Every structure is written in structure tokens, then in C-alpha cells.
Amino acid sequence: MKSILLLSTIFCLAFSTKFIRSFENIKVAGVVFDTKGEPIHGATVFVLGTKKGTMTDSLGQFEMMVPVETKKLTIKHYGYKAQDVNITLRKALRVFLEEGRTTTEKHRDLAIMESSSARREKKLMSHSALKPSPVLPASTFSEGIADDYAESEASTSPEGRGKVKEMTKSEVDTRAGQLTAGEWNDLNNWEAWMKLVEEADYKEMGEYWQVNAKERVSVFVTNQYELPIADCLVTMKSSGKIVWTSKTDNAGKAELWTETIGENMELIVESRENKFTSTKVRTAKEGVNRINFKEECDAPRKAEIMFVVDATGSMGDEIEFLKSELKDVIGQVESSRSNIDFSWGSVFYRDATDDYLTVQSPLSSKEKKVLDFINMQSAGGGGDYPEAVNEGLEEALMQDWSHDAIARIVFLVLDAPPHHNQDVLKDLQSQIAFASAMGIKIIPITASGINRQTEYLMKFMSVMTNGTYVFLTDHSGIGNAHLDPIVKDFEVEKLNDLLVRVIINYTDPGTCQSQEDNNVVFENIEVFPNPTLDLLQVKVPSGVNKITLTTSSGMLIHSEKITAQCDVSLDLTNYVDGMYVVNFFADEQVYSVKVIKSNKA
């Protein structure tokens, strides 16, 4: 259940009726057995009358968030009779399924055999050197078929979606560290973004998605040590009515949006210890609204990460690789960030006509749960170009997010846009506003198959939620062709390394204490003035071989080799106000200095 405070905020933001109805959720859990008492792995558990739910793990256990008004669940598995059960909140459900195939399953078995026979005959006639594939195990979905059976059908999209090579999982090396990607943060390149959205094609895209470049209001909250304060609630009002709500991230930044700046505008900033109201609201053109509180460093030590993944057939060229990458990212982050308690979750979505619409693994501090869940997923279904993006995103946003966290992130992995109708567009607008109000960054990861319209919408989502934009590239040679990003000045990275970097930097709680250093080289480093208005002076001692300047998310914006003791000037004039990091490299060690760029320096 969400707090009363947030409820009032959500309703004031005028979300769609459908979105409001789905706002209050409860968690249900249980175990599914056969009649012999053995756990059933891979059974689907849906809210009765829907295709939204989850799957049982290797122990037959399931857990998911459902709308508060939910009374019954439907539990299915191939080879067993479906069963409807009443929800009980006091204890976990124990469900026993009886064996027995349905008529639909028998018909589908026959269709599979005929299809397999036809494919074998076709291969023999074409003198294929490949041997017929062995019969594969039953699908984990009660009325579905394992996706390894079927060849994906090409869609009508000109991008050639759905054309997947006929290779089994065992024939493909899907180890992590192969996919390549880039990152671009339009908030840090605001002038370029504003010029882009004024171009005719992009204006049409904004009208198509019913989103546009609104007035940006940036807020930057620090304490008496000039260090950022995370997780402050920031509300913008016009004539007493809430216009937009956001939360500061670990860099102390919050982004708010309005159609226009009126005379009766105000900003209300609430930290754990202080509250401040300003009647002077500055747009991004005028600068950053900087708030300074007298407050000790006490950033939350909790972070929550959700992966929302398009699992339709067109993702078949990359989904096995993506699964490996995501599992690797979770493992790396958990082992490298010991001072943060992470919760992980995932939603896989398809489309309305498929075996399922969404399946979820709710946020949990037990990373093995989400790792097992991700491992069970495969690509299938779909067929047309757009998919149920809004349904997958809604399931993620309706999880039990904490109200005190250093970071909340939804990674949205997809290769197709949402459907284009008024209900979906209203959902997306509500979801963007809700994510902002909860302090949830939406970070898209676009795969092969997206078009320019989809890129625009994804970039817009990231901008409105203070996130960043990630895209796969052709450098890996994996999957179908990827859309060249509209920007060219980006660094190609391994996807897993990029995501680890982004998560690590967005979840850094900071410290009020001096950084520990046992390298005498670092003792002579000087960075001033801090905060700075424009130029940052850096005294680099002998022994340092490289310095870099990165954004708070770790995105590289300047790198310079050093051969001797020197003074370096870094010009931050054209960068937005906020926190940046100067990194010094020496003898395989790195020393970092956080600096504040502020128009009030």
C-alpha cells in the first residue's frame, strides 16, 4: 500500500482513471504442487480474467503484486488442469494441480508435430546439412509452446522484425560482455535537445505521441558542506495546484516540468529535516533553482532496480544475450556496492493476443529470485510492430517502491513502440508523471528494430524522469541492424559495463568525510573553486597519468592524458548546473573529487 501523502500527490496530478484504479496493490504469494506433493516449476499464475501475473520458480513458489480488489487467481501449467483459487492475505496459498491435458493442448501438440515434420521435409529437400531437431520439452506456459519450437514470423514492419536465425540456445555463445551500447543524456546536452525538438520532423513526433518540450525547471539541493541531499520531495505549484512533483537524486538534482511559467508559481522542497518554499521559480534558460539546507549527511542506503523487457518474437535475436547481460549486471553491482541494500525486480511483457500480457518478479532483496525469473524467460508472440509497452511499464511502476531510497530505476528494454491510441497515450503520460513523483528514473535500452519515432519517445521518457538514454549498437555484430542514434558523439561500451557504471554512479550515497588515500601523489591534488561558475582549475601532481571529467551518472565528458606535473583548466560554462566528478589515475589507482557547477557559485 502506498502512503496517504503520496496518494494525495498522485490524485492531484490528474492521472488517468485506469491508472488510479490500479494504484493500490497487495502482495500475494504461494506454492504450486502436483497431487504427489512435488513442486511445479513454470506454472503461470494470473489474476482471474487477465493475462497478467507471474510464474512459479524451481520450488513451485510464486509472489506478485496485484490490484487490491483482486479476489481470485487462475493457475495453469501444461499437462495439468487449470485451477481458480481465492486469495488469502494471512498466509501463503498452497495449490495442488491435477494432471490432465486440455483439448487445446492436445490440438497444439498435433500442430507442433505437423509443423516440425514440414520443417524437416523442407530441410531435406533443400539438401540442408542440418539434422532434424529433437523434440523439445513442454512450454512453461499452460497454453503456450516453448519458444524454441517455432520460427518467428516476419512482421509487416520494414525493419524486418521477427527474422530470427534458426539456432538453438546450445549453439549460441550468449555469455555476458558481448552486446555493445552507447549512452546519451539529453539533460546534460540541453541546448542540443531543444534545437532538435524544434525541427519539423521532431515536432511531428511530439504531436504524434502527444508529448512536447515543456518548460524545464531544475532544482539543486545541497547542505552546508556543499554536498547534494538526495531524496528530497520537490513540488511545483501554480495558484495552489500541483503542476509537477519530483525527487532529488543522489546528485541533489530534480527536474520538473510545466507548460508555462505563470505569476503564482512556487517551489516546495522537503528534506528529512527541512522544508523550504520559494515563490521565485526559474526556468532552465534562467538557471538552476538552488536550495541550501543546514543538514547532516544521511543519504538513504537503499536502492531499487526494475528491468522491464519486451519478450515478443522480434526480440529473439538478442533476448538470450540480454538475459546474460542483465544477470551479470546484477552480480557485479551486488559485489561492488556493499554500502547499499539493493532490491531487484523484473517484468517481461508481450502483447494482448499472446499467451501472456505481463509476468513479473516483484522487488526483492534476494537477487536470486529475479535471476531465476529472468533465466526462465524467452521471446515469442507479437507479430505486429507495436507492443504492450504501457502494460509492462505499469506493472513495474505499481511495485512496492520505497519512499526513502538513494535511487529508484526502471530499465526499459525494447525494440518496438507502444500501441498508438488515446488510452495508451494517456497511460504513458500518467506513468511518466508518476515515475517522476516517486523519484523513479526511466532509462530506456533500445534494441534492433526501433525507428526514429520510438527513439524520440524513449528519449522524452528519460528526460522527463531525470534519467538517461541507452541504445544497443552494431559494433557487437549481434542481432539485426540497430538504428543509428541521432547523436554521434558517444562512446561505445560493453552493455554490461555501461549498466554497472550507471547503477553504481546513481546509487553512490556520498560522504561528508574526506576520501581515504594512501597514495602520496593524491595528497598534492587541488581542485578549485568548488562550487564553480564556469572554469575549474586543477593542479595535477607528478605521477598522475590521466584525468577525466564525468557526469554524476559516470558518463565521460572529458579525458586528458597527463605526462608531467601541470595545471589544467576545465571549462564547465556550457554544462548544466549539478554535480560532476574529476577522476585522477595513477599506478592503477583512482582518486575522485566531486565538484559542484552552479550559477550561484
Automatic annotation (TrEMBL):
GO terms for molecular function: protein serine/threonine kinase activity. It comes from the Bacteria. The keyword DNA damage does not apply. It is found in: Secreted. Residues 149-173 are annotated as: Disordered. InterPro entries: CarboxyPept-like_regulatory (IPR008969), HMCN1-like_VWA (IPR056861), Secre_tail (IPR026444), Thr-specific_kinase-like (IPR052969), VWF_A (IPR002035), vWFA_dom_sf (IPR036465). GO terms for cellular component: cytoplasm. PANTHER family: ALPHA-PROTEIN KINASE VWKA, DUF659 DOMAIN-CONTAINING PROTEIN. This is VWFA domain-containing protein. It comes from Portibacter lacus.
